[in-house]
Amino acid sequence: MDIRQSFLDYFQSKGHTLVPSAPLVPLDDDGTLMFVNAGMVPFKNIFTGDAPIPNPPRATSSQTCLRAGGKHNDLDNVGYTARHHTLFEMLGNFSFGDYFKEEVMAMAWEYITSDTYLNLPIEKLWVTIHDSDDEAYELWQKHISKDRILRFGDADNFWSMGDTGACGPCSEIFYDQGEEHFSGPEDKMGGEGDRFLEIWNLVFMQYDRDAEGNLNPLPKPSIDTGMGFERVAAIKEGVLNNYHSTLFMPYIDKLSALVGTKYDYDAGNSASYRVIADHLRSCSFLLAQGVNFDKEGRGYVLRRIMRRAIRHGYLLGLREPFMHKMVDTLVAVMGEQYPYLGERAESVKASMKLEEERFFETIEAGIKLFNQELENTSETFDGEVAFKLYDTYGFPLDLTEDMLREKNIALDAEGFESKMAAQKAQSKAAWKGTGDAAATGDFKALKEAHGLNTFVGYTQRDASTKVLALLDTEFKEVTSIDGTGWVMLAQTPFYAESGGQVGDTGMIENAKVKDTQKFLDMNLSKFEGKLSVGDDVEVKVDTNKAEIEKHHSATHLLHAGLFEILGDHVAQAGSLNDDKRLRFDFSHPKAMTTEEIAQAEAWVNAQIVAAQSAKTQELSIDEARESGAKAQFGEKYGDKVRVVSIGESSIELCGGNHVSNTSQIGLFMITKESGVSAGVRRIEAVCGNAAIEAVKVLRSDLNEIKTELKNQNPIAGIVKLKEQVKTLKSDLASAMSSSQKELSAVEVNGINVIVEEIENGDIKAMIDEMKNKYDNIAIMLFMKKGDKVMLAAGSKNTPIKAGDWIKSIAPIVGGGGGGRPDFAQAGGKDASKITTAVEEAKVYLSEILEGGN
Fold first, then answer.
1. How far is CA 355 from the centre of its chain?
2. Are the beta carbons of 32 and 432 closer than 8 angstroms?
3. What Rg value do the Cα atoms of the chain yield, rounded?
4. Cβ atoms 351, 327 nearer than 8 A
5. What does the pLDDT look like over 134-181, one tens digit per residue?
6. HSE value, Cβ hemisphere, 13 Å, CA-based, for 20
7. CB of 420 within 8 A of CB of 387?
8. Distance CA 607, CA 745 (A)
9. Are 629 and 607 in contact (CB under 8 A)?
10. Which residues contact 404 (CB under 8 A, 6 or more apart)?
11. Which of 8, 101, 114, 373 is the most exposed place for a label (fewest CB within 10 A)?
12. Which residues contact 325 (CB under 8 A, 6 or more apart)?
């Protein structure tokens, strides 16, 4: 049975619109969520009234969700319970002010119990409700006996997706997996055991919780439900653990082959197999959707999940990268439902392998740190060091505990937990979403009053239009502004920043437009000047717009060129296009070679010289994909999308502005290639007028180099200069050698000793020469450098320790230093004390060699 398709087909038959799974990074990112953690998240703005209710006002979806940070964080439970996952699919049906409790209960019950669908036995089912929801209690009795309806409080039956946002009481449906399998004290309704498995949550969405915790009624009561796809699949397959279903066992079997040991649930290391199977899914989906390994934010969560999987591989005995070898298995299992997994598999593998290689090196360094601390430990291992092993080197606490157990040493668990608590607090404080800084502005009222304004910038750069509304710098609506504020124009040629293209600037009468941004899909321009609501105005985009278009089109060509030159693993990871440069981030496991950079530059210039026409089309999203257009995760697309084609070279979904012919781009120059994060590279380039200016700078620099070298052929001039430097170095070495003081040793109790001040030469080389010359030697040399002093000591087959000797003498000349027993060096600030230091050095020798100490 295809449960996913069965669910979607059922609710489509009930008038629900099928909505594809949204990206894991919320499209409407308001800073409250790191990842989509529930099926309703893509519909949040509809529930809160910030977006219009669709027609029909009901939808269904199978949404990928990730819980590995923030309020909903299942990471620590993954692999150790039968039901927790970082990435999971949530089957859901949604009502936007349409049906409510009675109807959703009826549909849920029909789908679960009907022999056409899940056909689960009624005697195995239980439901819970909020303890205050008498209405739900009465309605459920139409389907199930009241002794199977249990009441619980807020902790169990009040649902919210975050600290703020849509929320409400809920009713959960449970499946009894049988007393014969689970009979522990927590295997009861409301317990933490696995006997009673929650399979479907029906949320009665009634409120919007604000930052102060107030529950504000939503415009219309709505429904949000979420069924755990993985849990239901396990039930239908007759297994008691999600990981033993066909959704996970292919990964466990592949891992068993890599480890060389068959998976055994009862074995002590079985959890590691399950952790890796789960984390393979979440890491692959995040990488395929454009999230990259990083030191903070979402990229840091990805890194922690990946490293957790790697360290479990280490526990299984793996000592080289293995996760990337499992990606093809993932594509075989999930690629049909999520085609982008297959399309980006090579990119995912490359990024994974690089991160694995780096972390396996870190694990070895962690073992070194562990052994160093062990030398200083008698009874209890420092909790702070254990935390450093966990946090910096990725060591699981149980691995550290196992290693300590072998040495009969305890762990300072309290110290570890203290550091862990501090880190969690810091991480929570450090996470900042990337949503509108102006989330509390009057945008909702603006949208209700005026709807969306019209963008005319694809075909014109000026317009006669009207000022619909004004917002001050706090984004509050006002009737007039003399200074800085935001303006909403009825028709606007100003492009709002998106897709990597910067927001337009220009003029509105005498007011200067400084930037243009989108707020709730409305196009607003930031300006300085004097405007009033209702003004009829003439507006004009700055002339630099043509240069922005050149750089944006060049970015599309560069993307296509890199795809052809480096391989189909190349996927866009970010971009910026303004009038003076372009920046393009892309997935690639290593730095480009000089030859590859030259190839990419030449490829783009060849498309420019070919004078290829560019065209745009409006297509349905399915038509666009069929055409081969590249789409970017994290970009929000409507039912109709804009497809930009540049000759036969490039075809992408893009809402930005472009040249009409590649010949308009002019010269294209790559100025820099660098790394952004693990598996992500960045190219910076210029074209058009910016490239001309770059050539002028290069020519000026070249002329200056010719002048300084006094040679019109700079390469020949540099070669000649290098030869002169080489000759001068040789002459200097000869001069220093001929004037170098001849050193001779004297014997003290059978030990050769030298303590001298020298005028020039390489002190270390001279000490090494004497150590090679004599079977035993204690030597200290001083050399004046202006008003400062250099001194070094060496010892070979003597009781003198060079480091101790230097530490004793260096303070005399106002310095300090140290080193090994066989060689040490120091610097001093007082050259006037060299003579004294020489005598004291001899005294030091005498005391040791003649028995003074």
1. 12
2. no
3. 35
4. no
5. 999 999 999 999 999 999 999 899 987 567 877 889 999 999 999 999
6. 11
7. yes
8. 75
9. no
10. 381, 410, 411
11. 114
12. 254, 258
Can you tell me which residue has the tokens 């409301």?
A: 190
Which pairing describes strands 788-796 and 823-828: parallel, antiparallel, or unpaired? antiparallel
Distances (CA, A) of 773 to 221, 752, 824: 94, 11, 19
Higher pLDDT, 498 or 33: 498
C-alpha–C-alpha distance, residues 532 and 474, integer Å: 17
**Pairing, β 380-381 against β 410-411:** parallel
**In angstroms, what CA-CA distances link 68 with 77, 232, 741?**
10, 22, 70
Instruction: Yes or no: say if 32 and 67 are a contact pair by the CB < 8 Å rule.
Output: no
Task: Note the pLDDT tens digit of each residue in 605-656.
Answer: 999 999 999 999 988 877 887 787 776 655 566 668 899 999 988 999 999 9
The one-character DSSP state at 346 is: H
What are the φ and ψ backbone dihedral angles of 693, each rounded to 5 degrees? -65, -35
Give 144's DSSP letter.
Answer: S
User: Residue 49: which of 361, 445, 390, 571 has the closest Cα?
Assistant: 445
CA atoms of 106 and 119, how far apart (whole Å): 15
- The pLDDT tens digits of the residues spanning 282-332 come to 999 999 998 888 877 888 889 889 988 998 898 899 999 999 999 999 999
8 A C-beta contact, residue 258 and residue 242 = no
> Would you call the peptide bond into 56 cis, given omega within 30 degrees of 0 as the criterion?
yes
Cα 170 to chain centroid distance, Å, stands at 34
Distance CA 661, CA 323 (A): 44
Of 525, 488, 472, nearest to 503 by C-alpha is 525
The whole-angstrom separation of Cα 281 and Cα 445 is 41
Per the listing, tokens 């997706």 go with: 161
Structure tokens at 577: 């296009």
Residues 6+ apart with CB under 8 A from 158: 130, 167, 168, 169, 170
The structure's pTM equals: 0.70
Tokens 């998240």 belong to residue: 41
pLDDT at 433 over 80: no
Q: List pLDDT tens digits, range 243-284.
A: 999 999 999 999 999 999 999 999 989 999 999 999 999 999
Spatial CB neighbours of 844, under 8 Å, sequence gap ≥ 6? 805, 808, 809
User: Measured between alpha carbons, how far is 530 from 507 in angstroms, rounded to an integer?
Assistant: 12
Query: Pairing mode, if any, of strands 480-489 and 462-471?
Result: antiparallel
How many CB atoms lie under 10 A from the CB of residue 70? 18
Are 86 and 282 in contact by the 8 Å Cβ rule? The answer is yes
Percent with pLDDT over 70 in the chain:
93
Task: Estimate the share of the chain in helix, then strand, then coil, as percent rounded to the nearest 5.
Answer: 40, 25, 35
Residue 72 above 80 pLDDT? no
DSSP string, 52-70: PPPSSSEEEEEEEEE-BSS
Q: Where residue 435 falls among pLDDT bands split at 50, 70, 90?
A: very low
Query: Six-digit token pair at 842?
Result: 């001899």
Strand, coil or helix: 688: helix
Alpha helices, H only, 637-687 = none
pLDDT value of residue 73: 62
DSSP string covering 772-835? HH-SSEEEEEEEEETTEEEEEEEEESSS--HHHHHHHHGGGGT-EEEE-SSEEEEEES-GGGHH
What backbone torsions phi and psi does residue 360 show, to the nearest 5 degrees?
Answer: -60, -35
* Alpha carbon distance 361, 365 (integer Å): 7
**DSSP code at position 21:** P
Residue with tokens 């295997």: 187
Distance CA 563, CA 705 (A): 37
